[in-house]
């Protein structure tokens, strides 16, 4: 069994509870960051799980409890498509979170992963993140919160097994070729995840069970199971896992 310091696994009944807990933690992180620094710099994740989280954040329960004008919206990864494409992580967030909340574009920092030179766009995005988070030159940007999911292959963000980005130590955002998907994706790198003040990993569904078991109870193999590296950060890492996925750890 791998002992992961700084990691807290919270088992909740189902996918709705994962989203509800994620919304509550998002609100708590936002309140603390805004009180301490006057802004909340958050990286959203993609896929389908965040849709439920966004519904929770725009609900009558949480919408009034977050100081939205002080939130700076960023992304942890993006597909090589324009916002209008259904695959776009930004497009999904615009539809389910940003437009319903009436967020002003000045506070939305999307990844321009649809451009021809994605590597150059990644460097530009990294500079934006450093400016936004006010970190010193040469140091990774510090998010107040990074929201992540985990795929059935134990990828997180777009840090997929056996891909180049897993080993990057001196760049904060890269264009990462993903041969198993036949595409390239823009993604933050592990130095950025490890520098965050807080990281929340939302996992729901029995299909995530084997990957969860590999991450927490399998042999140490970070190339095969990238999410094993979600435990070396300076900040607090919380896994919110539904019972269906958590069963694989029991
Ligand atoms: C993406 C996400 C990705 C996602 C996982 C899990 O762009 O697809 O950033 O890392 O978090 O694939 O997705 P679900 O939570 O929707 O299963």
Indicate the topology:
Blueprint (H helix, E strand, L loop, with lengths): L6 E6 L2 H23 L2 E5 L4 H9 L13 E5 L1 E2 L10 H13 L16 H16 L11 E4 L24 E6 L4 E6 L1 H6 L2 E6 L5 H9 L18 E7 H4 L4
Parallel strand pairs: 1-9, 2-3, 2-5, 5-8, 8-9
Antiparallel strand pairs: 4-7, 6-7
The structure holds 6-phosphogluconic acid.
Bound molecules: 6-phosphogluconic acid
What does the oligomeric state look like here? single chain
Q: Given the C-alpha coordinates, what overall shape results?
A: globular
Average pLDDT rating: 95
Task: Quickly count the helices.
Answer: 7
- Lateral arrangement of strands in the main beta sheet: 1-9-8-5-2-3
Distance between the termini: 12 Å
Structural class: alpha/beta
Order of helices and strands: EHEHEEHHEEEHEHEH
Write down how many β-strands occur, each being a DSSP E stretch of 2 or more residues.
9
* Contiguous uncertain segments of 5+ residues: 1-5
Approximate helicity band? 25-40%
* DSSP strand content: 15-25%
Question: Can you give a write-up of this model?
Answer:
This protein has 250 residues and is an alpha/beta fold. The protein contains seven helices and nine strands, in the order βαβαββααβββαβαβα. The chain has helices spanning 15-37, 49-57, 89-101, 118-133, 190-195, 209-217, 243-246, and strands spanning 7-12, 40-44, 71-75, 77-78, 145-148, 173-178, 183-188, 198-203, 236-242. The strands form two sheets. The protein has a six-stranded parallel beta sheet, with helices on both faces. A three-stranded antiparallel beta sheet has the order 4-7-6. α6 links the parallel β8 (198-203) and β9. The model is unreliable at 1-5 (pLDDT under 50). 6-phosphogluconic acid binds at residues 45-49, 76-77, 89, 149-151, 155-158. Residues 45-49, 76-77, 89, 149-151, 155-158 line the site of 6-phosphogluconic acid (6PG).
